[in-house]
Structures are given as C-alpha cells and as structure tokens.
Amino acid sequence: MNLAPHLAFCEKKLNSLQTRQKIQLYFIPVCLMVFVVYNYIDFNKGLSSKPVTELTRNELNFYDFLTQLQEFSLNKGLSIINIKQNSMSVSLEAQGDFIELMRLLIFCETYESINNIESLKLTIKENTLHLLLTFSFAQYRYDAFEPNKKSPLKSLLNPFTLKVANAIEPLSIKLYAIVNNEVLINDTWLKEGEMYLNYEVYEIKAHSVMVKKSTNEYEELHLIKE
What we know:
By secondary structure, the chain is an alpha+beta fold. It contains 4 helices and 11 strands. Helix 3 (62-76) runs antiparallel to helix 4 (98-109). The longest helix has 22 residues, at 19-40.
C-alpha cells in the first residue's frame, strides 16, 4: 500500500491550519496522557516508607528522679548538698570527685530524655569540688543519649589540681660586684642569708660568693669583669 499520497495530504492539511488550531491539536494528546498517568499509575508503589516518629509529652515523676539521683550519688561517692525544684526545672549542688561530678552532669542531662542545661558552675571550697547545676527537663520525650562504654571522661583533667610549676632556675646566675657585705647577683643586691630565686647567698668572700641551691648543693660564683 502506497502511503505517500495520504501523508502528503495530512502534511498539506496540517500546514493549512491556523496557529491556534495547531496548539489545540498538540495540547489534547498531552492532556490525555497526563490524565491517564495521574489516575492509573501508583507513584508510591515501590517507594520505601519511613516510619514517622511521634514525640510524646515528657511527664516526669520527681519522686522517681530523686530516688535515682540519690542512688546514683551514693554509687559514685557524691554528696548532694542542696536541691530545688521549680516546675520542670531543677537546681542542685553536689560535691565530690571531678570525674564523678561530670558523670552526674551527664546523668541529669540525659535523664528520661535530652534535657536542657541552663547553668553550670564548678567551684572549689575547702579543697572540695562543688558543682552548681540548673537544668530543665525536656517537654517532649526524645531518645536519651547513652554514654559510650569507652567514655572520654577518664581522660579529663581536674582543672583545680593542676600544679603550677616551681620557678625555673635561670640558665646561669652571675656575680658582678662585691661591696662590703653585699653582692650584686645578676641585677639584685643581696646579703648573706637572702634568697635570689632558688638560690641562697650562703657565704660572701673577698672575690667570690658561695650560693646554696634548692637541691642543697653549693656553687661558687666568681666576679665577672665586663
């Protein structure tokens, strides 16, 4: 069958149409296709549905909290000095070891949910660490954080036990002058028995001086001529 004459007729007819008619001619099939796709194809088919997590309101029993707080403190060797409760907020003061106080902080922050730490202050009173903590319980229940068994708390250093290094002895001390019963060591005039850093002027001689170190060792300094 020769389709050339029929195709030529269709092309001629299409070219004779007005622009509005051509738009309608193309638009109708597109509308039909959209209608079929929208009504007969399930777009959700094959898609993995994700469960929706519904947050529940966090209703706390303060008696249970106080009971667990007391048990936790006893196990960690902590002392709860003062505790106040106002609605969903709690203020407490505890004393004890630095690491255990940090564990108490995590306990309060993650009790039954992820709670909000409002204020935190760590002080030292009479050589004992005190933790002043105020936090508010979450209004809605979230998955509480579970501390890893390999907790980094053990690597924390107590900032209140860092010892200041003793004054470093200078690389060298020099004797510049001896006048009567005084000597000029570096830039300081000293008499017998007086201290310069970690050195004690032990004995003043005619042209030298004996100094005693903090290690109970003796050193003789001779005059330096500049």
